[in-house]
Structure formats: C-alpha cells, structure tokens
Amino acid sequence: MNLGAAGVWVAFSAAIASGLLYLAVGAGATRLRPWADRVFRLQALLLLGLVAWLWHLLVTHQFQYSYVAAYTSRALDTRYLFAALWGGQQGTFLLWATWGSLLGCLFATSKNRLVPTAMFFLNWTQVFLLLILVIEGPFKLSKIVPADGAGLNPLLQDYWMTIHPPVLFLGFASLVIPYALSLSTLVHRDPGSWLQITPRWSLFSTVVLATGFTMGGIWAYKVLGWGGFWGWDPVENASFVPWLMNAALFHGLLVQRATGSLARTNLFLGVLPFLFVLYGSFLTRSGILADFSVHSFVDLGLNGYLLAFLGFFLVMGFGVWAFRVRHFSGLGSEISLLSREFGLWLGMLTFLLMGLLTMLGTSAPLVSRLFGPPASVNVSYYGLINGILGFLLTLLVGVAPLVRWRSDRAERVARTLAPPAAIAFLLMTVAILGGIRSFGRLALLGGAAFALSSNLWITLRALRRGPSFAAGYVSHLGVAVFLIGVICLGQFGREIPVELPLGQPKSVFGFQFIYRGLETPPDGRTRAVIAVQGEGRAFRAIPPIYYSEFNRGMMREPHVERFWDRDLYISPVEVVSSDRQTPGLTLDEGQSGIVGTARVTFLRIGMQRTDTEVRATADVQVEREGKSEVVRPAVVVGAGGRTELAATLADGGTVSLSEIQADRRRVTLAVRTADMPQAPEALAVHISTKPMINLVWIGVSITLLGSLLAIRRRTGRAPGDVAPAS
Amino acid sequence: MKQGWKYVISLAVLIGLVWFGVTAFDKSLTPYVSFADARRDGGYVQVNGKLADQNITTDGNRGTVVFHLRDSKGEVMEVLYHGVKPANFEMATNIVALGSYKDGRFDSDKLLVKCPSKYQAEANKGTS
C-alpha cells in the first residue's frame, strides 16, 4: 500500500470536513467550533506526517518513488536530501499546504470573532492544495526502480538555496490570512475586529516574504555569477508583487486605525496579495512562460487545476467584496491634502501601481498574444517603472511621517521638511561633483537621501518613547539605505573581461591577478586558483569551474572577495586551452600572410552542396623552411551541426578554417606550425567591483529589523496601540 | 477646499502614471521571431534555438562568446554574445538570445539558458 498517497487522501478529506464545520460555526453553530479546530489540527498533523514520511523516503533512497529518483541520488549530501523536499514542484505544493495548515492552527487560537469564518475561507486553500497533491503528489510510484537517482542540480546545492524556498512558501501561505480576514469582515460587518487582528498578520507576511527574497538574492549573487542579486525574473516578480500589495494593505490599515477611513479600500487590498500569489504561481508553474523565462517549468498537466484555484479565489474574493462593501463607510470625512493620511494614500497607490505594472511586464507573453505574436518585455522596463515609482515613494516616505494626521499647517510642514531637503540637495551636489550625471540616478539618490534624513530625525524622536514607536520609520531608513546602495552599484560598478595566462600577472582595478592553474578537491568540483594581491591584501580566489554530470555541462561560480566598501567579484568564464589561442589569419582569395616562420597563401575556395549538408573547403599553400605544400581544410555544415575539419601539415602542424565569407571569397585560417610554441593555457574571467554592496545588505537588514519591531508592537501590549500623532 | 479637487488631482496623477507605464511597456516589448525574421528585421528581438554544435569560441579579453543556434525550422545562425557565458550553457536544451542582427550575425546582450531539469532549475541567467 502506498502510505503517502493514502495519507494525502485522508488529509484531503479532513480539509473538506473542517471546511464544512467552519462554515457551520460561522453560520452560528458555535458549539461545533472545538470540532472544527480539531479536524483542522488533524489535517495539520497528517501533513506534518507526510513531510516526515517524504523525508524518510528521500533519506533512505526509495527510488521506486519517482519524486525521490528525480531529485536525489545516493551521492547527495544528507542536508540536500532534506532540501529535496522542495526541490521539485510536487514537493513545494506539500510544503505550501503544510505551512498553510500550521499557520491556520496558530491563527485559529486567536480570540478574535472573525476567526471562525476566516478559517472557513482559509481552509479552501488547503482543499485546493491537497487536491493538487492527490492528483500529482510526490508519492507516485514508478514502474521501473532505478539503481540511483538523478541527483540535485549543483547550482542548488548551496546553503542559501537550501533555506530560502521554505521561507518564501511560508510567506505565500501566510497571505491567505489577510484574504480570509477581509472576507470574514465583509460577512460580519465588523471593522473593529478587522483592525485589531489584521495588521500583525500583514506585517508577518511582509517580514517573511522580504526575508525570503533577500535570501534568494544572496544566493543569486553568490552562486550564479552574473553579478547581480535581482533580475526581474518571473519567479522573483511572483514574490515581489504580492509583497508590494501587502505593503499597500499595511499602510492602508495605518490610515484606517488613525482616522477610520479607507475601510472599503482596505478590504479590497486584503484580497489582492493572495490573488497575486495564486496568479504568480499559475504563471510560473504552468509552463506558459517557458520560452521567456530562464526557468524550464515543466507543465505537469495541472494548468486546469491551477486556473480553477485562481478563478475560485478571484470570484469568491471580489464577489463577497462587491456584495457586502456597501455596508462599510467610504472615504468618510473630508481628507485634507496636507495630512499624513493623504501621503499614505498616495503611497498605497504607488505600491499598487508598482505591483500592477511589474505584473503586467511579467505577463507580457500572455498579454501580447492577444494582439499579435508573443513578446516579452526588456528587463529595462522594470528598472524604468520601479525607478520612477520608487522615486515618488522616497518623496512620500520623506514627507508623510513628518505631517500630522487629519490636517497640518503648510508653514509648519515646510519648516520641518527644510532640513532633510537641504541634506538631500547637499548630497546631490556631492554626487554631481563625484561624477554622477544621470538625471534618474541623481533624482533617486536625492529622494533616498531626503527619506533617510527625515526618517532618521523622526526615528530619533520616536526612540525617546521606546523602540517599538520607531518601528515604521526604521523600516523606511532601511529602504533609503538600500536604494543608495543600489545607485552606487549602478553608478560606480565596473566590469572588465580579461584573459589570465597561466603564471603571468595581470593588473585590473589596482589588483594583480596571477592564474595558477586548476585544482580539484575531493568533492570533484574543480576550481581555478588565482593569486590576487592589492590594497594591502593577498588572497587566493578559487572560483569553481567544473563539468557537472547532472547538468552535462560546465558549472561556474564566482569568487566574492569582500572589502568594507566594496566586493571584488571574480566570475570564471572558461579555461582557454592552447589551440584556441592560435591567432586567426583573414585572407582574400590569392592573398598571402605570415604566421610565425610560415608563409600562408589562400589559393581558392570550394563549395559543395548536397541535400543534407554544405561543405566549404579552402586550398591553402604553406611554405616553410624552403618546403611547400598545399592542404585543404574544410568546414561541414549539416544536420549534425558545424564541424571544422583541420588539415595536418607534414611537420605535424595544423591548418583549420575558422570562418568563411563565401560571397566575398574570404576566409579566416587558424595556422599552427610545429615549431610554434604552444600558447599557455589561460583562464577567461570577468572581474567586477561592487562598490557599496554592503549598503544593500545593511539596508535590507534595517528594514527587516524595523518590521520585526512593528510586529512586536502590534502583538504585544505596548501602549502604542494607537499611532501617535506627531 | 472642495473635496472634488483632490479626486481630480489624484485621478490625473494616476492616469498620467498608468499612461506612462503602459507606454513604457509597449516600447520595451521584445517580439519573439524566427531567425529569418531576425535577419530581415534588424531590430531588437529575441530568438530561440538549440546549440547547433559544440563549436563555441570564447574571447576572454573582449568578453564575448560566439556560438551557433539552430531554430525549429533547421536554420542555423551565428550569435555573438557580449557577456559571461552563463553556467549550464553547454547543456542547455534551449537558448533564448536577445539582440539584433548585425554584420552577418546575431549580436546579443542577453541570454536565457534553459535546462533539462524541472522547476528547481532556477535562474541560470546571463545578463551583460
């Protein structure tokens, strides 16, 4: 009997049962509440059991399960055997369902009166996820039992990669709580309970998601070697957009708490983040983007279910909102243009727009299909959109915290804003002197400096009342620091491609690099050894560059050398063997050239075409030490690809045809005579500097710290439950 | 101050930003075309193919990689890529190159390399 598959069925039934029970409780049968909770907890226990069971199967190499065979092998390190639980798509559904059930258990303990109905809505995710697991779970048995599994992609065998998916999925799973609370509030018409419980869950999602994609960024930077930490890839956007929507929700809740307005907007915003989680999952898992993303998503045949999942939550969320929203007050009393809530409202709009436009870009292959051939957007689109909206946000973040709730006097606001604005202009002047000429960068830098100084001032003022009062402002500080770091990277970062010949020193960025050859540690991951010296430091850079059996290709990882003010980022490209370095000689028909001691004449070109291939030849005369010979190197282009057929000289040298321009009767020859010294092996690398990259990491850490402080404030009994009017 | 003003201002700003966003979106659309169309067009496009052979030349000092792609119609095109050869390059089941056709070959500044593994094969990206 397949224990795993049976367990999934039981958990699925439990999810159905708990859903019905919560429905009954929400409808008034309160005595059923303990039973609903019990059945839900049973589901959570079953899911935990399934996780444990899958781990057991992975660790004990039960290759009769196709999931185990597809993602692990006997040679795999134990910790990666555990990580393989979320190595494949089916496993991530199990992870998501498990987090969902655990969060549900925690959420259900809350005394808030919205909880039972919210649990009913939340439970629907469990139903759908478990349905997907029933259909395409990780417990499928295969008919053939392989002796060993395929193993895990070496790129994924990294510490950060191992831990970031569970964090991201915790974030995704948690966004169902604001969704469920929104609907429950609409059903019960109880904005008071909504305000009491929603902020802390929204903050929780903010922190967890941001932690998740920060970890992903660190992994990309450390392992992938393209030098960045964020690439606007669909998978990244699928986690960023819900985060933005949730940020809009949280700021809306602040306004609602302080002024009582925005009830309708916030209930709508509560629904959005989770819908975007579902939409993002659909985009990235359905295979629709397969031709446009670096991710090779396999269509598991789940598209229908994923779409149903999304459609169900979309109709349910918007439907309940549309039917019940009239029971809530609208914008309410007049909002003054010069009030904190107006600033926050604009900020929310900016968050929403950022999210929608980013998602529009990610969906380009779908959207463009409506009008013509599929197309994707250039990555620069995301930079442009988020740069401009980000600039608006820095201004709002700089102004809003200094303005009073409800209404303020223009003259007082101007007086308070003058110092941060002055600091911003001072920094922009310094930046212009420092060589920044790009208008966009200057604007963003000025905005970030403005936000930084204004929030620093208000943080210091709030700290007098206790750390938790400064929470939001500290988060803003972090964002400003992060932006300054990003601008420094873009402005002052440099990259140079260079070939390092074996044993010969080369100078780049004031450092001396000597390639010392390759070394292979016991784990088989060959790495290049480069001795680097400069800035009073001498170190060995050992970027891995090796052939991976799993990927049937070369793997490359950068070496990152950290300094306080920058990183030196060394990306290996290729070990260039000696024959590749033979200089090319480009000749027209009848022309001669000299290579070393040989005189080379290109006599004539020849072309033969058959149905299946084209063969190009060149008759080449080589004269050396009084001897002359004519050889005929060729290039064959056919179904099997392009093959160079080198001709051998009498003395053992070679002539090959590296390029042909048939229409101009011109060829490029690679000639190596026997007496030519073999060029030494060389290592091609890209060396780049990452100035102020630490500001990026520090900024993110400060933001996370601020959000954690905010959670403490929202969950503890701190006297700061009402936002202080400044 | 009248309430109406604020709606007008918010709406105007919002419409302006949305208009800007949609224009930027429209401008940065990079169509997916066949090799033949890429040759004819000459504009910034993306093409998709398999490695035609293992004849891949890296010029470490210029930071370029030259290789050959074959599209689904069997047509072969030389690609000059400016940037670091992405990890997993040689084993890619499919390579998407973004760039434009120039001087007899496809001049590319961005590659998307796709691997035969499944969902977990995240992000083997190459951006110059």
Structure notes:
The complex is a heterodimer of chains A (726) and B (128). Chain A is α+β, with helices and mostly antiparallel strands and 726 residues long. Among the domains of chain A are: 1-152; 154-367, no CATH class; 582-677, no CATH class. Chain A is built from 19 helices and 21 strands. Chain A has helices at 3-26, 33-59, 66-71, 78-83, 89-108, 115-136, 159-174, 176-188, 191-224, 234-259, 263-285, 303-324, 340-362, 364-369, 380-399, 410-433, 439-463, 471-492, 693-715; strands spanning 375-377, 494-501, 505-508, 511-519, 527-534, 537-541, 545-548, 553-556, 559-562, 566-576, 584-588, 592-595, 598-609, 613-624, 627-631, 634-638, 641-645, 647-648, 654-661, 666-672, 682-691. In chain A, the strands form 5 sheets. In chain A, strands 12, 13, 14, 15, 16 and 17 form a 6-stranded antiparallel β-sheet that branches. Chain A has a 4-stranded antiparallel β-sheet with strand order 2-21-10-9. In chain A, a hairpin with a 2-residue loop joins strand 3 and strand 4 (511-519). In chain A, 51% of the residues are buried. Mean pLDDT of chain A is 88; it is low at 717-726. Chain B is 25% helix and 38% strand. Chain B starts with a helix and ends with a strand. Chain B has 2 domains: 1-30; 31-122, Beta Barrel (OB fold (Dihydrolipoamide Acetyltransferase, E2P)). In chain B, a hairpin with a 5-residue loop joins strand 4 (64-70) and strand 5 (76-82). Chain B has helices at 3-27, 35-41, and strands at residues 29-31, 45-51, 57-59, 64-70, 76-82, 94-102, 105-114, 125-127. Chain B has 128 residues and is of the alpha+beta class. The chains are: A alpha+beta (726), B alpha+beta (128). At the A-B interface, helix 13, strand 1, helix 15, strand 2 and strand 8 of A face helix 1, strand 1, strand 3, strand 4 and strand 6 of B.
